[in-house]
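Methods — Computational structure assignment.
A single polypeptide chain was analysed. Its primary sequence is given first, followed by the predicted tertiary structure written as structure tokens.
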Amino acid sequence: MDYILKIENIVKSFSENLSKPDSNKAILSDINLEVASNTTVAIIGGNGAGKTTMLNIINGFIKPDSGNINMNNNGKLWNLSQLHPNQTARLGVGRLFQGTRIYGNLTVKENLMIACNEYTVEQPFYNVFFSKKYKKQLLEINNKIETLLEKIDGKVFQNELDKKAGSLSYGQQRILNLISLLLGGYKLVLLDEPTSGINPEDWITIDSIINTMRNSGISIVMVEHNIDFVRKHAIDCFYMKAGEIIVSGNTSDVLSHSLVKNDYLALC
């Protein structure tokens, strides 16, 4: 069993008119997709193809009408299709959304501390009754953050750890979200357009974060319109159109497929 994620026969429809139960429109039609352990795959396709809906179903924000989503967690299979987002997160599924998800009134460092899976933010009296253990834990978390930031190219957040996260640019907030995923102990991360809103001069930082994820053994499923980024990082690729996977396989083969070139790449 060398896969971390296996999607089988996923179907999802939404009603176009709530007063007419028979007005359902298929958003995903019989989706089958497999992600090998410790690899990066890309899902490409035009707007409305069903890419983000697929990510929402994987991590529990939307329930499929039928089909299974199996995650291999250290040899044990979990069916994610009926779990809630907090449950999939605890199983090791992380998510980068379109837009940003930060604590704007907290500092960059505080955002990163909360992202650490060792942080005991949900135990308000922990620092009172276990003060020595708490101080040791904080030191370990600080060292973990500093070590990680040193690994990432682009001199990310140098001299900005005490800055309010809400004052960062949109691109920096996206980078903060990506680094937070690295600190969360996830086994599988779902990235929705990771280069969206990022200035070209910051792409070296995004490249470095993706490489650090892969070197840490994290599997990646990304939705991306930046084809150069897809070529650089994705081993396998899935081309979606109108809720179906039309072409799949090795990234170079998919991107050179005539259908993908004519129907999609010509428009990018």
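Note: Residues 49 and 241 are 5 Å apart (CA to CA).
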